[in-house]
Amino acid sequence: MVKITDVARHAGVSPSTVSYALSGKRPISQETRQRIEASIRELGYRPHAGARALASSRSNVLALVVPLRSGIHVPVVMQFAVSVVTTARRHDHDVLLLTQEEGDEGLRRVADTALVDALIVMDLQLRDPRLPLLRSLDRPSVMIGFPLEPGGLTCVDLDFRAAGELCVERLAGLGHRVVALVGSPPEVYVRETAFAQRVVQGFTAAADRDGLSSSVHPCEATPAAARHIAEQLLREQPALTGVVVHNEAVLEPLIDAFEQLGLRVPGDLSVTAICPDELAESLRVPVTSVALPSAELGARAVELLMKKLDGTAVPEAALLPPRLTERASTVPRDVP
After folding, report:
1. Buried-state track 196-234, b at ≥16 Cβ within 10 A, e below 16
2. Which pTM value belongs to this model?
3. Phi and psi, residue 16, nearest 5°
4. Sign of torsion over alpha carbons 129, 132, 134, 138
5. What digits encode the pLDDT tens for the residues 85-99?
């Protein structure tokens, strides 16, 4: 294992000079710093994490706070987590994953120790009880999601309201006049989870603006619930020709249920969704969808934190515009 003394000998400086170059505690000439950096690269030296943290008063660890509450689709959450971890490693940081639903007590426990330098918080509610604490912490944080009052917070997310609108506008543009939203599990709405609420807002606003008949239906993440919703929709909205799905777990079971009930997709029923591209592309009938950009959002959250840790000012709000990809599940309405 290469030691700091090996780097010093190779660069022709003292071990303390190498230490100062790594920690930034004392000014080092540009020429000396470049020589040390070249020796580090050539020898493959990696500073001991504990010593580096002691020297810089930083742990080089980020916390990813994502409570695995009921109704959360874990595979999508893991896509965010992989993106955060991958991007953090590019900045020589590790990630501590916090999944317990502990509210601000869990945040305070972590923030009051030297475990992490900064926090990324997911699964925000419109009136999230953790926000006052996050505003008061002496550690930087980034939210993946937008509460009702984001002032004083750094937030990044897909523009879910615009995503809901875009799905409806595509169906309206194809001539569909009766549409429905099959949404997240009921408990997600009861908690006022921000992204789910904003999809409903966008869906309803666009349907009203375009003069469409519309309805919203929370749906448990099971095939049985998908079948129940399909039966309910055909019973209550017999003229239904367009459906927006914002519930990854029931997208395929819902299409199967409609077809078992005699409606062909897309011949009788056009379907759009808000979901990961790979899911939309993989179905028997590839689904027209607004992409869920988990990789981009996770990476942006980490990049914003890195800037905040370096003392660089960042914008408080960053909403990614939705991107809709047309696939085989949507066609113009077949008017008799």
Report:
1. bbbbbebbbebbeebebebbbbbbbbeeebbbebbeebb
2. 0.81
3. -65, -35
4. negative
5. 999 999 989 999 888
